[in-house]
């Protein structure tokens, strides 16, 4: 006859609430209002007409990116990110797109339609270098001070 197997201890039951949902947690409505107030809301620039309209706008070119923009009276910043196959393969292009979107999200931009075109040199640039060049190019174009 074999001895009985030792019983396993069951772990204590955890709360079904997500972490940080206690009384001192920030409510989602507050976070969304704060995000909107800080200007972090970006929308995508969509349609061929929207991109064609930007040909009439202000432009500037840096080492890693070039920008075109027009003022927009109707709400949030609309951004079109253009990263061609000259920059690299899909993984590299998506990485640059994510970095540029995050940089623009943190900048306080006035309402405008903005197109950012990445140059092939952006493939080897780090986040800080891309940030500096994008900020320089936006200042050069007159969008930010």
From TrEMBL:
It comes from the Bacteria. InterPro entries: Ribosomal_Su5_D2-typ_SF, Ribsml_uS5_D2-typ_fold_subgr, RNase_P, RNase_P_CS. Residues 1-29 are annotated as: Disordered. Its EC number is 3.1.26.5. It is an enzyme of class 3 (hydrolase). Residues 1-11 have a biased composition (Basic residues). One of its GO terms (biological process) is tRNA 5'-leader removal. GO terms for cellular component: ribonuclease P complex. Gene3D superfamilies: 3.30.230.10. PROSITE patterns: RIBONUCLEASE_P. It catalyses: Endonucleolytic cleavage of RNA, removing 5'-extranucleotides from tRNA precursor. One of its GO terms (molecular function) is 3'-tRNA processing endoribonuclease activity. Keywords: Endonuclease, Hydrolase, Nuclease, RNA-binding, tRNA processing. NCBIfam families: rnpA. RNaseP catalyzes the removal of the 5'-leader sequence from pre-tRNA to produce the mature 5'-terminus. It can also cleave other RNA substrates such as 4.5S RNA. The protein component plays an auxiliary but essential role in vivo by binding to the 5'-leader sequence and broadening the substrate specificity of the ribozyme. Belongs to the RnpA family. Consists of a catalytic RNA component (M1 or rnpB) and a protein subunit. This is Ribonuclease P protein component. It comes from Calidithermus roseus. The lineage of its organism: Bacteria, Thermotogati, Deinococcota, Deinococci, Thermales.
